[in-house]
Amino acid sequence: MGGRVSVLFLSTVLMCSMLAGCFGNDDSDDALPIDLVVHFDSTNGTIQQSFIGGSQISFTGVTFSFDYAYTTSDYGLETFSLDPGDGRPIITIDASESANIDVEYQIHGLYTVVLGATDINDNTVNQTVVLRVEQTIEWSEANSADPDDMEINTTPGNEGTGPMKLAVDSTVENPGDIVLGGSPVTVSWELVDPNSESKGIKTEQIADGQSASWKFDLNFPITGVHDLIVTIDQGQDRININHVVDLLYEQEESSPNPFESNDETEEDNSESE
Length: 273
Fold this sequence. Notes:
CATH class of the largest domain: Mainly Beta
CATH architecture of the largest domain: Sandwich
Distance between the termini: 67 Å
CATH topology of the largest domain: Jelly Rolls
CATH superfamily of the largest domain: Galactose-binding domain-like
Strand content: over 45%
Order of helices and strands: HHEEEEEEEEEEEEEEEEEH
């Protein structure tokens, strides 16, 4: 009887050893054929826009660079890709020709970007990175008797969350008249939202040759076009206006992943010791 049991047990062991996965796990089945390694120095930036007399004189978007050079595959790599996360087409490049992708943003927002690599066997690996793009707008108007309204669009470049803050820093100057002498002027600032609702207002009298400022933060503004309005309520003098408006977002961007050479890594390790 004991001999039969031994024979049956040995037969079972031999059969199981022939079947993959009967004893233990085959780690090679779980290993990804692509090791996606992408380096990038920054994940946030600020669009710069300037107006003089109501006309745009400069505009600089934000460009992010992604380096796929250290991505490897068990097979040949075919393409690298980047989905900008704002509705634009996916950017795809031939892995045999280049390992760098640059993407520019001209509208503020929080963007979820998908980085990817595909090999010749159609294996694909993706990585998600969140980018924060803010905007600073400078507006200047000189010698004005009827100031223009400044339009501020809080709509982001995707369908995501809008800015957490619209920050206004405005200065109005009543320039002195050396020849004839000037007089005081009374001016009002007002920020109006897309629903024509006043969100902030200030009125101040400015003496000849003096200036006054208004700093105002609107938290979580609704999306759409806001108007920053300056009105001369009283006085005949012309005024100079300088607005600086920032559209700011929650700091929810991913951490940068800059390339570090072996020398830099060794230096950091020696300092930590």
